[in-house]
Amino acid sequence: MKVKVFTLDAGAAGEVELSDDVFGVKPRADILARVVQWQQNRRHKGQHRTLTRREIDRTTKKMYKQKGTGQARHGAASVSQFRGGAKAMGPVLRSRETDLPKKVRALGLKMALSSKQQSGDLIVLDGAKVTEAKTKKMALSFGKLGLKSAVIVDGPEFDTGFQRAARNIPHIDLLQVQGINVLDVLRRQKLVLTKAALTAIEERFK
Hints:
By secondary structure, the protein is an alpha/beta fold. It has helices at 20-23, 29-43, 102-118, 135-145, 160-166, 182-186, 195-204, and strands spanning 2-6, 12-17, 122-125, 150-154, 172-176, 190-194.
């Protein structure tokens, strides 16, 4: 299939052929949901925890004699009943990471790209380079392209001027092609690919 290529000023820059194997896949909500959940599980740090009994730095000497005081029988000050003691059954370090086959991950990315193409939310740019790194000027260019919520994917490295001008615009994400993923593609309305990024993506799935 062919799509139009635009410049940053929304001018025409010819056409480009899209691979049906990458941009012509029928999206499935269950596959996309599995990949998004897998990504979110990997991002979850699981760093919240509390000290256990053995980690509390308090004396283990018996607080008072076993009988005759009329109080409960306590042996150490590190128990959860006392201030400064451990928390009973508190959270511990754990990973929420789950497994997902590489083929399913690759299929999910293809489906995410295809869903943007089929919904008309895919824009191909001739390039992402500017001579003057001005955020106001960049915002006007994005307005011409209809980019209110978008993720922009470029080749291995972004042009420094473009990156400086675009990074502070709300709801605009910049992503290098090697880091493209399902979650970032789906969380924004528009997907913007440069020709360099498009070539790299299609080479990746060959």
